């Protein structure tokens, strides 16, 4: 069945660019390709606003909502948004839920959807916001779904749509030599890497603590940590205290993070909370074997012993042993990398994410 063209207002309140913002961008792009009319409301100082403006992808509504309870910001937003006469309101962050509810209340007609990409439990206020109105919640994994069910969200309100990534550039040539030169890594020296915001739940601390043990077996190994966040200095100092700083490269925020993955021999994600982990998808698409933790939605992406190795969270010894196992076996790394790439292409494309999101929209619209 061909879907009617829909006007969709998306609301995002993040200033930075992380996995959620990448998913919003891909969703906007896919909806336009499918003949829909998305509009994005977000912070004018955000990276997402800048990217949409630069590419002129879709109309923008500047939304200065650093405090979701600011009645003046809400009034200005609703005044602009209601002129769009949307069929659908889709919120993408926790602080976007309340503005979405107010817009739904003002316009009456639009269907309301909330994306939930983290597996943190809901507090009492968040639970009431997500349960208000006849809204639907789109979660990125069974792991996130299970958290919401434990918090008392009715199962019929939840739809699982796995995150997806663009597969357009998978065969692009990448000059890995330039990155080895930039990061002062000689040829043939093994590289272990992670791409993730430097926040507590991503578990960088445990990866750094695993590294002294790895260096006992593979003393030349380099750890590349791509990303920025509130733990920048803390993690740097931690590596210094453990005496491994000469083997660690902190890159900070990089727009070319996905290209840097090409020099990794092993990709690792040591999170102790994780909705899905789209950086895993980026790594697997590039044929990289993965060592990650068995939390949240990660086991839905990484098949243990087939596309990578899963270990318990907050366990540097298990993490280090898994990395050593893969460093010892180049054939296993190659096989896991090939299986991972195949899995991403089959199950985690942006096109599939866009199509399944649209199916959730249509299902709800047909019941209005």
UniProtKB/TrEMBL annotation:
List, alphabetically, the InterPro entries matched: Glyco_trans_1 (IPR001296), Glyco_trans_4-like_N (IPR028098)
Provide the protein name.
Glycosyl transferase family 1
Q: Name all Glycosyl transferase family domain ranges.
A: 178-343
Where does the Glycosyltransferase subfamily 4-like N-terminal domain lie? 18-168
Gene Ontology molecular function: any one: glycosyltransferase activity
């Amino acid at each position: 069945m061909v879907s009617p063209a829909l006007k969709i207002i998306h609301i995002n309140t993040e200033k930075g660019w992380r996995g959620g913002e990448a998913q919003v961008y891909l969703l906007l792009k896919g909806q336009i390709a499918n003949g829909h009319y998305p509009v994005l409301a977000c912070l004018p100082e955000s990276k997402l606003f800048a990217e949409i403006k630069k590419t002129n992808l879709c109309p923008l509504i500047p939304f200065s909502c650093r405090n979701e309870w600011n009645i003046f910001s809400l009034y200005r937003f609703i005044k602009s948004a209601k002129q769009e006469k949307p069929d659908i309101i889709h919120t993408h962050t926790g602080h976007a839920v309340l503005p979405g509810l107010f817009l739904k209340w003002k316009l009456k007609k639009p269907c309301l959807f909330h994306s939930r990409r983290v597996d943190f439990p809901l507090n009492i206020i968040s639970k009431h916001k997500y349960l208000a109105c006849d809204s639907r919640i789109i979660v990125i994994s069974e792991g996130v779904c299970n958290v919401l069910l434990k918090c008392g969200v009715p199962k019929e309100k939840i739809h699982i749509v796995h995150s997806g990534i663009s597969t357009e550039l998978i065969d692009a040539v990448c000059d890995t030599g330039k990155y080895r030169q930039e990061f002062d890594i000689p040829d043939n020296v093994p590289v272990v890497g992670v791409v993730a915001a430097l926040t507590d739940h991503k578990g960088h601390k445990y990866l750094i603590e695993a590294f002294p043990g790895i260096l006992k077996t593979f003393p030349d190994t380099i750890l590349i940590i791509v990303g920025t966040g509130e733990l920048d200095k803390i993690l740097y100092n931690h590596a210094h205290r453990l005496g491994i700083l000469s083997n660690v490269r902190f890159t900070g925020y990089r727009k070319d993070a996905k290209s840097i993955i090409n020099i990794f021999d092993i990709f690792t994600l040591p999170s102790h909370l994780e909705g899905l982990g789209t950086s895993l998808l980026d790594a697997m698409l590039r044929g990289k074997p993965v060592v990650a933790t068995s939390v949240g939605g990660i086991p839905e992406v990484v098949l243990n012993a087939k596309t990578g190795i899963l270990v318990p969270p907050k366990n540097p010894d298990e993490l280090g042993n898994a990395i050593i196992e893969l460093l010892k076996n180049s054939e296993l790394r190659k096989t896991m990398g090939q299986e991972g790439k195949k899995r991403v292409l089959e199950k985690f494309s942006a096109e599939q994410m866009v199509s399944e999101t649209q199916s959730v929209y249509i299902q709800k619209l047909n019941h209005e």
